[in-house]
């Protein structure tokens, strides 16, 4: 599912250490939750699940007595933003769990808009993108796993989801996976609204933040936490020179009055919080206490 060194635990740990996540810097052990090859998982029932009856969660995650999440709140090319629910649901899913969550959305290329820059192919871990004699991209759906990274990296809006409900289904599955992870044990959640990048942190490339830093948010309720973080972000002014700012100044810009959707028009985030509340993961209502 992923390019680079996250495909197995030894290389994943090397990458973590190089980026400052080690026992010496964090004060705790760094453990890859689904084993050496991503196959060490267990099926966890989802109470009230509509899309997933048994979530495939990394075994080490489920061995913990208490669950605490620390999330970098940022944009996301499919889910609108990556907050606590996405971090828990997708982050704790094993390799097959991640594949299950992404299974609904396999994008296609609008040939007229494709510039043949090949950025999408560089992001594809499945080698599902090829280029014809005219230099236009096409996606082999027999290889595509629906991760959506090509959607985010395309600067010309040439790649779209052929399944109009793909983003909503992904969001609902992530909420159900998150519920499987936290149910039945104490849990607490922290989100940092800093360096709000336009895309998921799984992207190897970097970009300037789309919004200014807001601060640290924390809650026992991951749904309330995501709602509070989203509301705080929507109150901010877009940063000059960011992807969001560029999108807003494009000739064909259509204002959705939502910084995340304006950044990645194929994304959608409301369904995640609505479904999370529906299945009992938490509530979207919150009291904001400033420290």
Summarize the topology.
Layout: H1 9-18, H2 23-26, E1 41-45, E2 54-58, H3 59-62, E3 67-72, E4 74-76, E5 80-82, H4 84-92, H5 95-102, E6 107-109, H6 119-123, E7 129-131, E8 137-139, H7 149-153, E9 159-161, H8 166-182, E10 187-193, E11 215-219, H9 222-234, H10 243-248, H11 259-263, H12 270-278
Helix pairs in contact: 4-8, 8-12
pLDDT < 50 runs, ≥5 residues: none
Number of separate strands: 11
Strand order of the largest sheet: 3-10-11
Structural class by secondary-structure content: alpha+beta
**Could you give a short account of the major beta sheet?**
3 strands, mixed
Explain what you see.
Helix content is 33%, strand content 16%. With 291 residues, it is α+β, with helices and mostly antiparallel strands. The chain folds into two domains: 175 residues, no CATH class; 57 residues, 2-Layer Sandwich (Alpha-Beta Plaits), CATH 3.30.70.20. The strands form five sheets. The protein has a three-stranded mixed β-sheet, covered by helices on one side. The chain is globular and about 55 Å long. The relative contact order is 0.17. The model has no long low-confidence stretch (mean pLDDT 93).
What's the gist of this structure?
The protein is built from twelve helices and eleven strands. Helix 8 packs across helix 12.
